[in-house]
Design a protein that fits this description.
Elements: H1 22-31, E1 57-61, E2 89-93, H2 94-101, H3 112-130, E3 137-144, E4 146-147, E5 150-151, H4 156-167, E6 170-171, E7 180-183, H5 193-216, E8 222-228, H6 231-241, E9 246-249, E10 271-277, E11 285-290, E12 309-315, H7 328-348, E13 354-360, H8 363-371, E14 380-387, E15 390-397
Parallel strand pairs: 3-6, 3-7, 3-8, 8-9, 11-12, 11-13, 13-14
Antiparallel strand pairs: 1-2, 4-5, 10-12, 14-15
Helix pairs in contact: 5-6, 6-8, 7-8
């Protein structure tokens, strides 16, 4: 907090802040040089636009320096002699100090208890994160496109919370945005061959330029994937990345806080595989994934006829639905069944060239579907997507 006029020896006010004081240095270290307002986390020793190395921080009192009513939260009974201690100070950017927590009309919104929780949560996170070695870093891949005409977005705070609260990792500061972007939002929406080829080319370019060279130089040894894009592109991304680097995949939840943090409580959903149709041609195989919704036999294209063997993976004991994959353990359960079914198809249908894949699946399962393919062993996936009322071929994987 900026110095206030008054007698520093008065019994109803603490001395003005001395920025060289031991308590202030304790605050700086505990805050990690970042704004402690919930969700801000702004770095306070560099201007993000000019790059100049400058001090942008305010040191603010939680309980005001003076006991007068004009001092924010100053009428609290907290002892005067304790008010300049690090425990009562917050490191803030000027915006969240002067225009938010100390602004007169907003004071009821920011009581002492709330600010103390902001401070404690921030400092606990900084201490925990800085205690990690490089093995807790993750390079974040953020892929966004248009879904039903709307451009998807994923915020930096959503990314940070997902990787930190789910798996105790922190985003590597790989770029200014803290992630590797694969931007598919500007593709045309024609759903034609050019659309799918253009998206695949963008994915290939980012992987070739930003990811593979860093992996080869041992700059990346862990990936985190957060994506909102068309399912075929997600399957293709998973395959192009492969399984050579340890990877966490995240799910956008649509109930509760609607965030990306994996749920910690709930039941792990198991999956079952089955044969929907025994075909007449051992070289023709289709695979239906009824996870987000049920795909009916009559919804498949006309060319998937009685000569096809049609396999299905579906949840065990529950109806397919969009919120089914809420736990990371459910994703692992799907991966196990999917791997076993692929190996079974390879064994029973020796020499087949492709599997026609019909997915009704969420993001993380789509990435797994591509990632678990064995290059040059698993048959090609001919991936379909529901466009309008019918499933149409989009792209080939592997």
């Amino acid at each position: 907090m900026k110095s206030e006029s008054g007698n520093p020896n008065s019994t109803n006010e603490a001395p003005p802040i001395n920025f060289g004081d031991r308590e202030v240095w304790k605050l700086w270290v505990r805050a990690g040089g970042r704004c402690e307002f919930d969700g801000c986390n702004k770095y306070l020793l560099e201007d993000e636009f000019t790059g100049f190395q400058v001090n942008l921080a305010d040191v603010a009192h939680i309980v005001g320096r003076k006991t007068s009513a004009r001092s924010p939260r100053g009428d609290d009974p907290f002892p005067i002699k304790e008010r300049d201690k690090a425990e009562n100070l917050m490191l803030l950017c000027s915006e969240h100090h002067n225009k938010i927590i100390d602004k007169g009309e907003l004071l009821p919104e920011y009581p002492k208890e709330l600010l103390k929780r902001y401070k404690e949560d921030h400092e606990r996170r900084i201490r925990h994160v800085t205690g990690f070695g490089p093995d807790r870093e993750t390079a974040v891949i953020c892929m966004v496109g248009r879904i039903r005409g709307d451009a998807a977005t994923i915020s930096k705070e959503e990314i940070r919370k997902a990787v930190w609260e789910s798996n105790g990792r922190y985003p590597r500061y790989f770029t200014a945005e803290n992630n590797i972007k694969i931007d598919l939002k500007h593709l045309s929406e024609e759903d034609d061959e050019l659309y799918w080829k253009s998206g695949m080319a963008i994915i290939n370019d980012v992987i070739k330029r930003e990811i593979l060279p860093a992996v080869e130089r041992d700059k990346i040894d862990h990936l985190s994937i957060l994506a909102l894009a068309r399912i075929p592109f997600l399957i293709y991304l998973g395959h192009q990345l492969g399984d050579k680097v340890a990877t966490d995949i995240y799910q956008k939840h649509r109930v509760g806080d609607e965030g990306w943090v994996w749920r910690k409580e709930g039941e792990t959903i198991q999956f079952e595989r089955g044969l929907l149709q025994k075909g007449n041609d051992n070289a023709k195989v289709a695979l239906v994934l009824s996870i987000s919704g049920k795909i009916l036999r009559e919804q498949l294209p006309e060319h998937i006829k009685e000569d096809f063997y049609i396999y299905e993976i579906a949840p065990e004991g529950v109806d397919p639905n969009r919120e089914l994959v809420a736990l990371e353990s459910t994703l692992s359960a799907f991966r196990t069944v999917y791997q076993k079914l692929l190996r079974e198809i390879e064994r029973l249908h020796k020499g087949i060239k492709e599997i026609h894949l019909f997915p009704a699946i969420p993001v993380p399962i789509a990435v797994v579907c591509g990632r678990e393919l064995l290059k040059n062993i698993t048959p090609h996936l001919h991936v379909y997507d529901k466009i309008g009322d019918e499933y149409k071929f989009t792209l080939e994987v592997n």
